[in-house]
Write a structure and sequence with these properties.
With 221 residues, this protein is an alpha/beta fold. It has ten helices and six strands. The chain folds into two domains: 4-149, 3-Layer(aba) Sandwich (Rossmann fold); 151-217. The chain has a six-stranded parallel beta sheet, sandwiched between helices.
């Protein structure tokens, strides 16, 4: 389990939730900072003293006030912290519930866990700390359920090919010619129409335009 944890959070009620969780886990050393600049400064001091933090728990959004900051948000703090200490474990504790935005945190910043602030976030945070201490990734269960719903259709290479053609401006009626020329089967117009219809039905999407937008948003194409 982690012995030294830094929490960057500017809301007192969230600090209380995190504090209780860490106390329940028996974390011996906990430091809280309301500003990202202060959090990074403390990380630097601990690192320079050869007594680095094991874990950073940070929010994404910090309210601006009269105390002007160079680092104004959690994403920038994570980048700076990882530049200083590449092996630092990071848990994001935030209200953000957009699955694409959360995915980007894992993909772009390589965070270790994401916990959404919600009714039972203390128990959720405890599970996250347990998972990360065991070198596992974690995200809140409600986000996992939503992710499964949003990705209810298992896209095949064939599906991606025809949706990409639509995205590039190829009329649906002309797709079979391209498929035949490139020896992609099934190539019939009826097969293309049935496949697109099946995808849109699975995703509750009514038009090709919406399907293209969905696939772009989910980085499928």
């Amino acid at each position: 389990m982690f012995k030294k944890v830094l929490i960057a959070e500017d809301h007192e009620h969230a600090n209380i939730s995190v504090r209780k969780t860490l106390e329940d886990l028996g974390t011996p050393q906990k430091e809280f900072r309301f500003y990202c600049d202060d959090a990074l400064k403390l990380l630097q001091q601990a690192y320079d003293q050869d007594n680095p933090f094991d874990l950073l728990i940070t929010d994404l959004s910090f309210e601006e006030d009269s105390n002007i900051q160079e680092i104004t948000g959690g994403r920038e703090l994570i980048r700076a912290a990882r530049k200083l200490q590449p092996g630092l474990k990071v848990i994001v504790f935030s209200l953000e519930n957009n699955i694409t935005a959360v995915d980007e945190l894992f993909d772009d910043l390589d965070i270790d866990a994401y916990v959404r602030k919600a009714r039972y976030d203390a128990a959720d945070l405890r599970r996250a700390v347990d998972a990360v201490s065991g070198n596992k990734k974690y995200r809140s269960p409600d986000l996992m359920r939503n992710k499964k719903v949003e990705n209810a259709y298992d896209f095949k290479l064939y599906d991606i090919e025809i949706i990409t053609l639509l995205c590039n401006g190829t009329p649906q009626k002309n797709i079979p010619s391209y498929l035949k020329e490139n020896d992609i089967k099934p190539a019939g117009l009826s097969s293309v129409e049935k496949r697109l219809s099946a995808i849109k039905t699975a995703l509750s999407i009514s038009s090709n335009e919406q399907l293209i937008a969905y696939c772009k948003d989910k980085r499928i194409i």
